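Quarterly update, task 2.4: zinc ion-bound model.
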Amino acid sequence: MFGLIIVLWIIFCFVVASTWEKKGLSFGKGFVISLFFSPLVGLLMGIFEAMPAREKNQKETEEKNEKSSEKTELPPDKQRIGLKFNCPKCGKPIIVKFLKVGEIAKCHNCGAEVSVPTDAEKVNLEEFRE
Ligand SMILES: [Zn+2]
């Protein structure tokens, strides 16, 4: 009879430890606690310990989301950076707000259609507001 209780005890310890593992906790810790205190205590401790761990994980993912959203570029109307280069035809400076390097810009002075050169200077559009 006593031997059966010991066997059942150890089986319950394994069951509790596996629930710990499922919750992202240590299998070994859950097993040892169940073995020394009782599988019931181990089970309750597993539930108790899993709660703050889950909250922590949620916070971490939230922080990661915030960081990744910071990295995303501002919409074009909120961007204050433009590209400035000189028109190859008339030499007047051209400032483009929404175009990227290689895209076609039109010179306001002579009407020439020129592609934005790779050496176009990045400028703060606030300084060039009309
Ligand atoms: Zn021009």
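Highlight for this quarter: The two ends are 93 Å apart (CA to CA).
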